[in-house]
Amino acid sequence: MSKGYLNLVLHAHLPFVRHVDRDDRLEERWLFEAMTECYIPLLQVFQQLVRDKVDFRVTISLSPTLLSMLRDALLQDRYKEHLDKSLRLAELEVERTRGDAKFHALARAYRQKLRDIQQFYDDYHGDLVSAFRDLHATGCIELMTSAATHAFLPYIQTEAAIRAQIATAVTTFESCFGFRPPGIWLPECAYTPRVLAYLQEYSIRYFFVDTHAFTSAEPRPAFGTFSPVLVGNSGIAAFARDEECSRQVWSSEHGYPGDYEYREYYRDIGFDLDEAYIQPFIHPDGIRVNTGFKYYRITGRGVDKEPYDLARAREKACEHAGNFMFNRQQQLAYMHGQMGRLPVVTAPYDAELFGHWWYEGPIFLDVLLRKLHFDQSEIRTITPSEYLALYPDYPCVDLGFSSWGRNGYGEVWLNGTNDWMYPALHECERRLTRSANRSEQESPLVQRALNQAARELMLAQSSDWSFIMDQRTSVNYAVSRFKQHINRCLALLDMVEAKHVDMDFLQQVESIDNLFPEIDYRLYQSSSHIGVQAIEKNHPTDPPRSILMLSWEFPPISVGGLSRHVYDLARAMAAQGVDVHVITLGGGDSPLEDTVDGVHVHRVSVRQPDGRSFIDFAFQMNLAMLDRALELAENGLVVDVIHAHDWLVADAAKTLKQRWRLPLIATIHATEHGRNHGIYTDTQAYIHHREWVLTYEAARVIVCSSYMQSEVQRLFALPSDKVRLLPNGIQVSLPAAGWMPGVHEEKDGKSATVVFVGRLVREKGVQHLLDAAPAILRAFPNTRFVIVGQGPMLSELEQQCHKLGIDPYVEFAGYVDDEYRNDLLQTASAVVVPSLYEPFGIVALEAMAAGTPLVASDVGGLSDIVDHDRNGLKVYPGDAQSIAQQVCRLLGDPALRRRLRETASADLARFDWQSIAKATQQIYEEVATKRERQAIGVE
Asked: pLDDT above 70 covers what percent of the chain?
């Protein structure tokens, strides 16, 4: 009886590594090795399964760059030469190992395998694309595409460039196979809602995401990853990777490929044998390379290796195939009957794993598919199209940005090793769109140059280059290739704009980068390019340079984290040349007009009337802010964008937006609903409505965490493309600690210090830390607790300490300045953030920057920051026992504290204020351009 399905997906991709200038480029070997060790062996396995009448289903994505190389005559000829050379080496190896019982049989097996591969290649006249086409015709293999050059789509700036990647992929696939692809492999499984419109346009029915895309979906899918979902209102399905399948095959420690019986990848005769013998088969310059002749098994973690036994490795592959099948049976049996339909397990992998990195991988797949067919009836393999056809309805959810890269988002493809690439990429995107918009009356030669510029931009966008830089493998090659394509694109665009195309140069680059013959540069035209031309005539490429921010908090006024956020963001943008004006509340001795770190600060003086509500105070503050803004405008201030922070400035922001006809950006730092876990009073309802007004009036809404992204979209019914996620930032290196009497002296022999920093309000959860203190003190009697912050719960918390009998161990430090706080953080044993509601949790970053181990609630934005047992420890919100357990674990394990500190320090790079400021400016530029389009009637 069938209990469910296995959706096995292989993603085949290589970057475009065709080099016409010479035939000994090492990078072309990437393709030749993949063809020899992976693509042809897999084709042979699948063809034999068909001949043996095994009923199986496998889905294979073939990237357009790979398809282009497989169809290229030059590379086909070079691969034939590569095979010939490999067979000559095989003959020599058979002779060299004759008399060596350990290696001779394996050398003969390698020779026979190469002969079979050569015969297969000759039978298809070098056209592997037709071999994939034949398999698709059997119904056992479903083929799909990927983005044109495997670009990391969320980091493409313009919508036109995203569309071009998808459209070119579909066109290339259709030219190869004669039909449109039913699905797409989004490169790196990187999803952004921006792709949906173009997947719809080109009739894509499904794509794949990593597991956590479903766990963070809104609403969360009831069936988890055992069912696809329909995304938004698109009708397009998303399948999520099953974590168990991934771990059993991919894990470097626990995955099958690491078994000691399997072949050792890193021991090859290209490196082991004498140069005199191996020289004809390595690089002409004497560079050692892998030849594919490997005689040792993994053996163990050490450098000593035992001879490889192919028969024993085959037995192990059979054992692992049986184990994989058993585990899927257990999964599906558990879910069977719980869903009202049969569940599906989605198992996606890089195709190159099977045969190249894991030599026995094709054997594993062969045995697995045979076992599933002959040895059981509980699981059937299925393609995504077949599964989607089984049932009329699937859950509908909204998905946020995600990938299957390190930590689940985009840090692999945007970090300190590769961030320098993106300004050049984005400039090329914008310039190509401008040129494409103006090209309708241009000569065929200019249009030909634009087509080549599009090819060069796409090749520069390949995610492979940034990945290689992050992995620090062939970095020089990746940097060189990226710069080559960018420079060629810019040179061609210069020619187009000058209306003088250098024919020799164009022909040269066309011969070098000859992929995508069906490309159409008009894909880069914006939807209203006549209006865009009018905009660019008056405002060529300048981003908004003058910003008005509205915030009720700004130093020295600091009630929560808002003050610090606005201050750090404003001064980071000012340092980048933006003219930033902040209108805020005055107080104390602060001047009404001030310049702070390049930021123009305009303060208003509002006194809250006695006996009047906070709502009345906020209304009076908005009137004062509005008056000050209008006064500044009368004195000559001209701004491009208004940026409002939280509901307290909503009225002034809305009025200025309408009066000045400027785009409004809103940052929502927290919601009234979230703070109170619902709306229960008239005051809460009023604040909730002002929050809705602000988000409704805003062109874009910025939030600081994926939790807040889901919350504001749900509470205020916002479309997903209106919300942008930008984290809060941190000064990565806090000032050095200094000695302060009364705080850092050890009191009464207490040797551990646990610190809380935050407002003393219920949602910050400090009451639960105090409830945990007795258990902590029983385990570590020499512990003191320092509570930093002010708030309405102070008296209640002091009484709580008295009832618990922990008064001698708890110090309420009240409000402290930044220097005092930084010193305290740096000398603490642990920082605890026990929040019940936390949109972001800046104190968590401050603790990480101070090098202090962190214990934090698994709630809100803290869940984005803290990765349990990697850069900090998580606790259940509101659970004193959980807090006590994790704090005691931390205090009792110096090695754990050291490891968490080191990892946390490395994670801070993505919270740099300069990067966040640049990303904020990109949002400003986006809405300012849209406003200009609307002004001239093109949107």
From this structure: 94
377: pLDDT confidence band, cut at 50, 70 and 90? very high
> How many domains, in total, are found in the chain?
4
Say if residue 483 is in the same domain as residue 593.
Answer: no
| Average pLDDT estimate for 109-116 | 97
The yes-or-no answer on residue 497 being catalytic is no
Give the mean pLDDT of 319-335.
96
Residue 191's Cβ-count burial label (10 Å; 0-12, 13-18, 19+) is: buried
Could you give phi then psi for residue 151, rounded to 5 degrees? Answer: -75, 145
Identify the pLDDT of residue 532.
37
Q: Are residues 163 and 134 in the same domain?
A: yes
Any idea what DSSP says for residue 263? Answer: B
Domain membership of residue 791 (yes or no) is yes
Domain extent, residue 832, equals 752-911
Domain boundary pick from 357, 387, 408 = 408
Pair (637, 707) in one structural domain: yes
Dihedral angle sign, alpha carbons of residues 239, 245, 247, 252: negative
Is 188 among the residues known to form the active site?
yes
Q: Which long-range contacts (CB under 8 A, 24 or more apart) does 133-140 make?
A: 133/176, 133/177, 133/178, 135/43, 135/46, 135/47, 135/50, 136/177, 138/50, 140/46, 140/49, 140/50, 140/55, 140/56, 140/57, 140/58
Nearest to 183 by CA among 245, 226, 239, 232: 239
- 373 and 326: one domain? yes
Taking CA atoms, 278 is separated from 91, 108, 399, 808, in Å, by 13, 18, 53, 76
Instruction: Give, rounded to a whole angstrom, the gap between the first and last alpha carbons of the chain.
Output: 57
Shortest CA distance to 394 belongs to which of 223, 617, 147?
Answer: 223
Residues flagged as binding site: 241, 258, 404, 464
The residue behind tokens 């034939």 is 80
Determine phi and psi for 874, rounding to 5 degrees.
-105, 150
Identify the CATH number of the domain in which residue 428 sits: 1.20.1430.10
Does 512 share its domain with 569? Answer: no
Q: Are 199 and 162 in contact (CB under 8 A)?
A: no
- Determine which one of 27, 127, 350, 411 is catalytic: 350
How far apart CA 115 and CA 330 sit, in angstroms, is: 41
Q: Is the domain of 610 the same as that of 692?
A: yes
Q: What are the start-end ranges of the H helices in 97-193? A: 104-123, 128-138, 159-177
Residues 425 and 404 in one domain: no
Task: Give the model confidence (pLDDT) of 675-705 as tens digits.
Answer: 888 898 988 999 999 999 999 999 999 998 8
The enclosing domain of 789 has a CATH number of: 3.40.50.2000
Sign of CA dihedral 914, 919, 925, 931: negative
Residue 100: inside a domain: no
pLDDT of residue 929: 65
19 versus 909: the higher-pLDDT residue is 19
Q: What is the pLDDT of residues 517-544, one digit of tens each?
A: 989 999 998 754 433 333 343 343 455 6
191 contact partners, CB below 8 Å, separation of at least 6: 154, 207, 209, 213, 238, 399, 401, 402, 403
Which member of 28, 188, 640, 823 is catalytic?
188
Assigned domain for 301 exists: no
> Which of 377, 408, 439 lies at the terminal end of a domain, its last residue?
408
Site of tokens 């401008």: 434
For residues 585 and 864, what is the distance between their CA atoms, to the nearest angstrom?
Answer: 31
Query: Is residue 927, in this structure, part of any structural domain at all?
Result: no
Mean pLDDT value across the chain: 89
Beta pairing partners, 788: 757, 814
CA 367 vs. chain centroid, Å, equals 34
Question: Which of 775 and 861 is assigned the larger pLDDT?
Answer: 775
pLDDT digits (tens, 9 = 90+) for 218-238: 999 999 999 999 998 889 999
**Statement: the pTM of the whole predicted model exceeds 0.70:** no
Residues 836 and 788 in one domain: yes
26-62 pLDDT, tens digit per residue, is 889 999 999 999 999 999 999 999 999 999 999 999 9
Contact 587, 604 (CB under 8 A): no
